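As promised in the previous annual report, we have extended the structural survey to additional targets. Below is the entry for SMI1/KNR4 family protein.
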Amino acid sequence: MKLLKARIKEFNEVITHQLDEDFTDWFRVRNTEPASTEQLNELSTYFETEVPTALQKFYQQSGGIWNQSEDYHINIPSVFRLLEELKAEQNFDKRYSLGLIDAIKHSWGNDRPEFNHISQTKIDYINTNYKCIGLYRYDWQLEEAFYIYFDDSHQFGLVRYHQDEFDELWDEHLTPMLTRTQADKPLEQLLIQVLDCLEEGIINDSGED
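The corresponding structure token record, generated without further manual editing, is:
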């Protein structure tokens, strides 16, 4: 994860240099506490599949990454946070599994009734075969998110969902995944791509003010 750590450092330096001090803290990417071996072993049982080596290293070295911004936001929860959500009792807070659809629903307080019209067999297939580790948001604030997931081959990919475009989510992103994975990148490469995207958006927006 050396390249990722270097990119996060560079990202924060660019933000500090380009933005007013009032906004720097808002966009700065932070790390959380690295996972212990015990925590990682416990979380592995919830994945219900082999955890990619790259993801294990990320949890052990970086913990998780996040920033405070809503419009250019990244959140890859730490193992500690994921375990808290998986064990939560309140429906609004609870992460019912690490599956992709359950992660999408969790990010909306488990209130996405559109999925009620999809067969449980298809939902179960996607939750079983694609595991979500976090999300990022670009410009649309809380109306849209890109979900970061991995497949059985330990490749990583993104799924976009806007709150008013469920048909696009299902028809263009999730339905193809019922027959063939769309993931095609290593973890570190994908996260660097996400940071590149966020940095470009932040800088472009700041130049329009």
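The chain has a mean pLDDT of 93. The domain at 32-185+199-208 is CATH 3.40.1580 (SMI1/KNR4-like). These points will be discussed at the next consortium meeting with the crystallography subgroup.
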